[in-house]
TrEMBL record:
The keyword Repressor does not apply. Its EC number is 1.14.11.9. SUPFAM superfamilies: Clavaminate synthase-like (SSF51197). The lineage of its organism: Eukaryota, Viridiplantae, Streptophyta, Embryophyta, Tracheophyta. It is an enzyme of class 1 (oxidoreductase). GO terms for molecular function: flavanone 3-dioxygenase activity; L-ascorbic acid binding; metal ion binding. Belongs to the iron/ascorbate-dependent oxidoreductase family. Keywords: Dioxygenase, Iron, Metal-binding, Oxidoreductase, Vitamin C. Residues 205-305 form the Fe2OG dioxygenase domain. This is Putative flavanone 3-dioxygenase. It holds the Pfam family DIOX_N. It comes from Rosa chinensis.
Length: 355
């Protein structure tokens, strides 16, 4: 981390975007060096790595038998995969593309204008712009700029670009509806009431964020990383991206590149879901790679409990399975602070609270 700090002190670069636009850039600077082993990547044509697809219309408007089948399918998906692609979810493709364009507009602003929204590394800030690094966590600089906005329980936005606030309000509402429907189906898949997760996690006050990531072309994509491997701290995360792939998820010891339909949500389970289910459902490890062809923009929409909720394994599930709780109870805000503490760089935060 000392080398990273020195690189920041001596560099005039304020964003990865400005670095890439430098006419002298021909290779990855040493402070960004991160080696990716291509042998660890899955063959996208191998049926073993065909990402499960969930038709959300069968949950919301299908027959009772169709909903029952989807709920049944979710048991295996959540146990063995921890992620899937949601289609027919009711969010218009034009709105999804509009949200990506709004983020593109923000990242296209001059650096000095984006700097107005930089507030440090507190995960609970109303909004926060970053240039790609967090010295408490990152041992290399990341090939990424990001902008996070908190959209629930209170909606926050900003005035640049002009369209951002209106689009992000509508998009956050619609994507939240999708996330809540998914949690209802997951509750049922656990043999619990549909609103069990919603009520237990106090999701009426639950934390929702819009986290936009900007990954410009990299001259040596195998020698840099957008985001190192990690799990998410919340319950469930939805992700969309432009036409460029880069999101990878770990499955059966390999890294699988996500390549879903343009109008689909990639959905991954997060740490609080693994805690709540006492390890039955898995929080998935994932990362963001970069490319040398074109800019990639992704938007992650994490959904979690309220920040004051105490999360622990569900007593009903522990009793039914005859298991002791595998995780210590913890306040969600404290858990997120643990994630940001620097103790868990490229490691599972869950390991710190195992009983």
């Amino acid at each position: 981390m000392a080398a990273v700090a020195r690189a920041l002190e001596t560099s005039n670069v304020t964003s990865i975007k400005s670095l890439v636009e430098s006419p002298t850039l021909s290779s990855v600077p040493s402070a960004y060096a991160f080696n990716i082993n291509p042998n660890d990547e899955a063959d996208p044509n191998d049926p073993e790595f065909a990402i499960p697809i969930v038709d959300m219309s069968l949950l919301t408007s299908g027959s009772p038998d169709q909903r029952t089948q989807i709920v049944h399918d979710l048991v295996k998906i959540c146990e063995e995969w921890g992620f899937f692609i949601a289609i027919n979810h009711g969010v218009q493709e034009s709105l999804m593309k509009g949200m990506i364009e709004a983020y593109h507009g923000f990242f296209s602003l001059p650096d000095e204008e984006k700097e107005e929204f930089k507030f440090g590394n507190d995960v609970l800030e109303m909004f926060n712009y970053g240039t790609s690094y967090n010295l408490a966590l990152d041992k290399v600089l990341l090939w990424r700029d990001f902008f996070k906005v908190r959209t629930h329980p209170e909606f926050h936005s900003h005035y640049k670009p002009a369209s951002f606030s209106e689009i992000s309000l509508e998009f956050s509402k619609r994507s939240r509806e999708v996330a809540l429907e998914i949690t209802r189906a997951i509750s049922e898949s656990l043999g619990l009431q549909p609103d069990y997760i919603y009520n237990t996690m106090n999701m009426d006050r639950g934390l929702q964020m819009l986290a936009g990531n900007y990954y410009p072309p990299c001259p040596q994509p195998q020698n840099a990383i957008g985001i190192p491997h990690h799990t998410d701290p919340g319950l469930v995360t939805l992700v969309i991206q432009n036409e460029m792939n880069g999101l990878q998820v770990e499955h059966n010891g390999k890294w699988l590149t996500v390549n879903g339909p343009p109008n689909g949500f990639f959905v991954n389970l997060a740490d609080q879901m693994q805690i709540l289910t006492n390890g039955k459902y898995k929080s998935v490890m994932h990362r963001a790679t970069v490319n040398n062809k074109a800019t990639r923009i992704s938007i992650a929409i994490p959904h979690g409990p309220s920040i004051d909720t105490i999360i622990a394994p569900a007593p009903e599930l522990c009793e039914r399975e005859g298991q002791a709780p595998k995780y210590h109870a913890m306040n969600y805000k404290e858990y997120m602070q643990l994630v940001q503490s620097g103790k868990n760089y490229m490691k599972a935060t869950l390991d710190h609270i195992r009983a």
